[in-house]
Design brief:
By secondary structure, the chain is α/β, with parallel strands linked by helices. The chain has a single domain (6-134), classed as Nucleotidyltransferase, domain 5. Helices cover 37% and strands 32% of the residues. The protein starts with 5 loop residues before the first strand and ends with a helix. The relative contact order is 0.24. It is an enzyme of class 3 (hydrolase).
């Protein structure tokens, strides 16, 4: 099977204050690591975990809009990855809302994969979240 049409989507959320001003960064990359789309958005006040979930959710929404069928999400939030995979229960009601939304979007994809990666491998998404955090608008 060719992985040429697989899109790697790197997601990160950040909150300054936890809860506090929060933002997300999402980088869409092809199989060669070339970025072809990104999101860098403020999301209001939120906890870090809500920001991480929001980044995943927005990434999934954009992938659907772009009709991407084979996606591999990469996050440095072990909590979100394990909750999404069902390895951890979601007890927080705010996070459960995102888990439910993301679960329902999963069926839109031919292939869906989500994996935890160390923070050092998620620098672009982190940079995008910080750009949104630091934006004056």
């Amino acid at each position: 099977m060719s992985t040429k049409d697989t899109t790697f989507i790197y997601c990160d959320g950040s909150s300054r204050g936890n809860p506090g001003p929060a933002a997300i960064g999402v980088s869409f990359q092809d199989n060669d690591g070339i970025e072809f789309f990104f999101l860098s958005e403020k999301i209001g006040n939120a906890t870090n975990n809500v920001a991480e979930w929001q980044a995943l959710h927005r990434g999934m929404e954009e992938a659907i809009k772009k009709n991407l069928q084979k996606i591999k999400f990469r996050l440095d939030s072990e909590l979100v990855v394990k909750q999404m995979k069902g390895e951890y229960k979601v007890k927080n009601k705010d996070l459960l809302v995102f888990k439910t939304k993301c679960e329902s979007l999963k069926s839109s994809f031919q292939q869906f994969d989500i994996q935890y990666i160390p923070r050092e491998q998620n620098t672009r998404a982190d940079q995008l979240a910080n750009l949104a955090q630091d934006a004056k608008v």
